[in-house]
Write a structure and sequence with these properties.
Elements (H helix, E strand, L loop, with lengths): L3 E12 L2 E12 L3 E5 L6 H8 L7 E6 L2 E2 L5 H11 E4 L11 H6 L9 H14 L15 H13 L5 E5 L7 H16 L3 E6 L2 H5 L3 E6 L2 E7 L3
Parallel strand pairs: 3-8, 3-9, 6-7, 7-8
Antiparallel strand pairs: 1-2, 1-4, 4-5, 9-10
């Protein structure tokens, strides 16, 4: 697949008198691996919510996988997320009483997949992230790095077009964080478009593209040969 899978054009988002985004334009092409980097309050998390269709812009145009999301109903936005977007967050958001496989299978609840098939796909996703022997383990039996791998498996179980990772290494020690970042690179190498939201300048510098945000604006967009 080639071409833009995500496009923002002159996107703004205001909360009362506060301008969280002040005219952001960004295009992400299929197969890219990039970081959106900036300090707290720069607007990067707001942009994540809007690109992930969890929130609507005040003005501007957002296109995801060829779909202009502006006119979509909430039901159609839910379907778009289920079909095209995977989310990974800093704090895992796993159900404590559920096994790894059950947590991952939850990622298919809105995709119309039967229970047995959800479980089969969940086990395959866990194997893909190196946790094939942890399918029956619960979160309290897993390390922080393993919990994040479960969260990544849940995000990719539906084979999304775009993976949005919000501070995916922020709650991990350096070794576990490096392993998670290597996993994201592997997923990207297999064809998934990966957008990492981070304040970590070193992490951002290690990725092929860096979009720098400050005060609700894109202030830089750099590519390297990595």
């Amino acid at each position: 697949m080639s071409g833009a899978v995500l496009s923002l054009r002159d996107v703004t988002k205001t909360y009362g008198e506060v301008g969280a985004l002040r005219g952001v334009s960004l295009e992400v092409r299929a197969g890219e691996l990039l970081a959106v980097v900036g300090p707290s309050g720069s607007g990067k998390s707001t942009m994540l919510n809007i690109t992930g269709t969890l929130d609507r812009p005040t003005s501007g145009t957002v296109t995801v996988a060829g779909n202009d999301v502006g006119g979509l109903s909430d039901d159609r936005l839910s379907r778009l997320r289920a079909d095209h977007i995977g989310f990974v967050f800093q704090h895992f958001h796993l159900q404590p009483g559920a096994t790894a496989a059950e947590n991952v299978a939850d990622g298919l609840l809105y995709a119309g997949v039967g229970r047995r098939e959800r479980h089969r796909r969940a086990e395959a996703a866990l194997d893909r992230v190196g946790l094939g022997r942890r399918v029956d383990h619960r979160p309290n039996q897993l390390s922080g790095g393993e919990k994040q791998r479960v969260a990544i498996a849940r995000a990719i179980v539906g084979d999304p077009t775009i993976l949005l990772a919000d501070e995916p290494t922020g709650a991990l020690d350096s070794a576990s964080g490096a392993a998670v970042l290597a996993l994201l690179r592997d997923l990207n190498a297999s064809g998934t478009t990966v957008v990492v939201i981070t304040h970590d300048l070193a992490l951002a510098a290690s990725l092929p593209r860096r979009v720098r945000m400050r005060d609700g604006l894109v202030e830089g967009d750099e590519r390297s040969g990595r």
